[in-house]
Design brief:
The protein has a domain of about 140 residues: YerB-like (YerB-like fold), CATH 3.50.90. The longest helix has 13 residues. The protein is an alpha+beta fold. Strands 1, 2, 3, 4, 5, 9, 15, 18, 19, 20 and 22 form an 11-stranded mixed β-sheet that branches. It is built from 5 helices and 23 strands.
Length: about 375
């Protein structure tokens, strides 16, 4: 860990030019060659198949392996993203909410209720979270923040409606408005000309901009009023109950490859989950006040780069790349694939089969290819 550089993450007035310059310097200096502003290549071995059209209906996931059974397709009361009994209708559409993750923003109610949480880099060398709700409601989700392009790409992977407070609008590749339009992702914003202010409110116990709160019920009311489609998501994995063969992974440390930000996960045999820590302390849910846990942690490696002068971070999510999957106390290798910039993602194991996970919550960690996931 490099705690000295962590001071650059704080001070809302300072996280401007200094943080952007630091992030750009670290992202570029840690690679043999500087990544271009508009990259035209990916990591060695990646396969890129450009196409100008949307491919959601043509890209098919790998067939489930005979040894693992997908209960989500067999039983309608099972959540397709968790493999567990659903409290909400199991056939409803997924809902993604952008969550602040800067140290000092306060506790984050609702994370424990999410089916999937995606964590990725943003400007300033910190991360932001996107909590995806499908099988369980959350009475409070907070603090809601603005959205960036990589999260639109992953909301698209789950065909989720994404809720947020504002967005990156700098002209260029990091413009969220373009990503929403090209990927045809529905969104619910607290700001702008099409704002849904009734679905959000300000928490008087917090300071702006870390004080916007919402709920899944309020957001689903907006979805219904706008007559947004309500189909259940296509899972990126299947479920099994056994521990898959793999290297022992009882303790996991994730270095995002930028600044000093790291996560850690520790296996708990009693609950069959990984307990999460960040900022040198257990990461607590804001509602339960208990440490967050996950049945599965998927580390997605892809080159990250600074896309503009504001410091917005993008990933080269086109082609294919490596994943590390931590589940059941073991680690296995796999591959992510996204044939084009308008395709959806798929996950496969080392044998090319659809990835199999244990039932429960899953975290997806978006790590720069210079970062690491060490385990023992």
């Amino acid at each position: 860990m490099r705690p000295v550089s962590r001071h650059l993450l704080f001070g809302t007035a300072i996280v401007g030019a200094m943080s952007i310059s630091l992030l750009a310097l670290v992202l570029y200096s840690r690679q043999p060659k500087a990544l271009p502003v508009s990259p035209t290549s990916v990591t060695p071995g990646a396969v890129v198949t450009p196409t100008p059209t949307r491919e959601r209906d043509t890209v098919q996931p790998p067939s489930p392996s005979p040894s693992a059974t997908s209960t989500a397709t067999a039983v309608s009361t099972i959540g397709p993203l968790t493999g567990l009994p659903a409290e909400d209708p199991a056939n409803q559409r997924a809902l993604a909410v952008m969550i602040d993750n800067i140290d000092g923003a306060g506790l984050q109610p609702g994370l424990a209720q999410a089916d999937v949480v995606v964590e990725g880099l943003v400007e300033g060398g910190i991360t932001r979270l996107m909590a995806i709700f499908q099988s369980r409601p959350a009475a409070a989700v907070e603090p809601v923040r603005s959205v960036r392009v990589p999260f639109v790409q992953w909301a698209d992977a789950f065909d989720a409606v994404i809720a947020h407070v504002g967005m990156a609008e700098e002209p260029g590749p990091a413009d969220v408005r373009v990503a929403l339009r090209e990927l045809r992702v529905d969104d619910i914003d607290y700001e702008g000309s099409n704002a849904a202010e009734a679905a959000f409110r300000r928490d008087p116990q917090r300071f702006a901009p870390h004080n916007v709160i919402t709920s899944t019920d309020a957001l689903r009311e907006v979805m219904a009023a706008r007559k947004l489609r309500a189909a259940a998501p296509r899972p990126l994995w299947q479920f099994h109950r056994a521990t898959a063969p793999g290297a022992s992974a009882l303790s996991v440390n994730i270095d995002f490859g930028v600044g000093s930000f790291e996560d850690s996960w520790k296996w708990d045999e009693a609950s069959a989950t990984y307990a999460r820590s960040q900022y040198f302390a257990p990461h607590l849910d804001g509602t339960t006040r208990k440490q967050l846990t996950a049945a599965n942690v998927i580390v997605v490696f892809a080159p990250a780069y600074v896309a503009d002068g504001v410091g917005h971070v993008l990933y080269e999510f086109e082609g294919s790349g490596r994943i590390l999957v931590f589940s059941g106390g073991t680690a296995i290798e796999g591959t992510w694939k996204r044939p084009s910039s308008t395709s959806t993602f798929s996950f496969t194991d080392a044998n090319g089969q659809l990835l199999a996970l244990n039932a429960g919550q899953t975290w997806i960690e978006l790590v720069d290819h210079t970062g690491s996931a060490t385990y023992r």
